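Private note to self, pasted from the team thread so I don't lose it. Backbone tokens:
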């Protein structure tokens, strides 16, 4: 069997070498060199991260992770296990041959492994982007035979290893499709064909990155032509709170729904109004981070539009904090915090308009790390010194004080995490994070609660909720409202 495969391998290699491939002489050798050390794919990932949205960056990251696993497997195991010599170049035209010949063994092809790993990893996040990359990946793989540096069997084995690496990465870090938020509890919401009965409020000041505000309105009308759109956030426009109230009132009168396009702060404001008027909410992601929309499972305006037209919806939890009994509550959809994080948000927002959101976040983290001081606070009657107090609306995945995302938006709990102050607390927390011992460090404590009482806050203490910063009262109570809001989202078939 081995002899038969070897004979086929060499015969196919010679067939490729002796055949004329129109136009390939000028393209394939350059393409092969461009893929050296994965530079072609790393460059593609960098461009996607720089100019794409969050789904694009996530696909690029998965592609790079798959490439890294494939490259590590090929270079540390496969090539050392099968020491196959490179093909002889006697039958390969000189114009095709690479200027710098590889010196490693032939089996398997690292270029093919990297190409297929990257394309497959990207495809797991978005099949259309993966399909777009497939011809390029196949061309890189074929170029290794065309230029005479690999036998076809080397390329086939490398491609198989690359695909396997992508599957391994997906097994370790499942995609959002595999970890889709559960479509429960299902809720009744009106189907609004073409958006008829949907009143959308857009916020130009929410950090959209997909064009001007008029462009955003046009995007909505493209997918929901009968929806009514009110624009806020620019000079002369209706204030956001008044626009949301008016839109919700009209939605209630028509038996329709309130829609909102913006970031988490805008969606937070819309959620409170939708709950008050008892109308469903259509979330159209249009901010910088879109945490709630992504945790909900709505990543694009088109996905939200399909749910609105079919009437597919779920009920989600709300959390709220209030200064005292009988006083007005403030709702939050994502997170609440006291301590270092509000200061980080304040600095980030101060610099985001000048240097961009990501550099501003880095600057803010560095500044807070150097200057932050712990706060003294009473938690459920017990006095503590904390660097930060984090409260999530529903349980977050991820360790420590930097949770990542939620899987269930109707689990009925508050995710409470505290980073304690004291001697060398920051150093001990950083050491635990580096060594993977966050679950066991005494600096960090976690709990799942339904109610949290906070007291003893000093005047001038700030709190942050859903990206907004506000002064904190001396005492606060944080509570859950289970399944308090109906939100459109597509349900599994």
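Design output:
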């Amino acid at each position: 069997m081995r002899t038969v495969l070897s004979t086929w391998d060499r015969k196919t290699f010679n067939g490729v070498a002796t055949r004329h491939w129109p136009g390939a002489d000028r393209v394939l050798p350059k393409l092969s060199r461009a893929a050296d050390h994965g530079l072609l794919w790393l460059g593609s990932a960098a461009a996607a991260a720089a100019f794409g949205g969050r789904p694009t960056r996530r696909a690029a990251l998965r592609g790079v992770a798959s490439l890294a696993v494939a490259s590590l497997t090929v270079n540390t195991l496969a090539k050392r296990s099968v020491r196959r010599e490179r093909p002889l170049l006697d039958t390969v035209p000189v114009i095709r041959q690479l200027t710098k010949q590889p010196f490693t063994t032939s089996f398997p092809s690292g270029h093919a492994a990297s190409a297929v790993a990257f394309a497959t990893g990207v495809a797991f996040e978005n099949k259309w982007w993966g399909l777009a990359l497939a011809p390029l990946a196949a061309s890189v793989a074929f170029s290794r035979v065309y230029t005479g540096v690999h036998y076809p069997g080397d390329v086939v084995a490398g491609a198989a290893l690359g695909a396997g690496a992508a599957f391994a990465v997906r097994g370790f870090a499942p995609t959002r499709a595999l970890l889709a938020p559960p479509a429960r509890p299902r809720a009744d919401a009106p189907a609004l064909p073409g958006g008829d009965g949907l009143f959308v409020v857009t916020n130009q000041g929410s950090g959209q990155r997909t064009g001007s505000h008029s462009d955003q309105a046009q995007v909505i009308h493209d997918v929901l032509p009968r929806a009514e759109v009110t624009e806020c956030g620019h000079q002369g426009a209706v204030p956001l709170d008044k626009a949301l109230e008016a839109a919700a009132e009209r939605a209630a009168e028509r038996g329709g729904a309130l829609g909102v396009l913006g970031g988490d702060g805008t969606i937070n404001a819309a959620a409170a109004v939708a709950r008050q008027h008892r109308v469903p909410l259509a979330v159209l992601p249009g901010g910088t981070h879109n945490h709630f929309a992504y945790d909900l499972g709505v990543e694009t305006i088109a996905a939200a539009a399909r749910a609105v037209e079919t009437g597919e919806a779920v009920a989600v939890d709300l959390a709220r904090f209030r200064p005292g009994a009988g006083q007005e509550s403030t709702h939050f959809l994502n997170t609440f915090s006291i301590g270092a994080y509000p200061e980080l948000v304040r600095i980030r927002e101060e610099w985001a308009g000048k240097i961009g959101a990501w550099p501003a976040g880095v600057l803010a983290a560095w500044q807070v790390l150097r200057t932050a001081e712990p706060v003294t606070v009473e938690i459920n009657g017990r006095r503590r010194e904390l660097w930060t107090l984090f409260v999530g609306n529903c349980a977050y995945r991820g360790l420590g004080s930097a949770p990542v995302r939620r899987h269930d938006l109707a689990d009925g709990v508050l995710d409470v995490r505290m980073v304690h102050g004291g001697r060398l607390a920051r150093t001990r927390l950083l050491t635990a994070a580096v060594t993977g011992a966050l679950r066991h460090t005494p600096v960090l404590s976690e709990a799942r609660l339904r109610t949290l009482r906070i007291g003893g806050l000093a005047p001038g203490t700030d709190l942050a909720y859903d990206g907004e910063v506000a002064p904190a009262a001396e005492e606060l109570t944080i509570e859950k409202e289970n399944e308090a809001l109906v939100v459109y989202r597509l349900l599994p078939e």
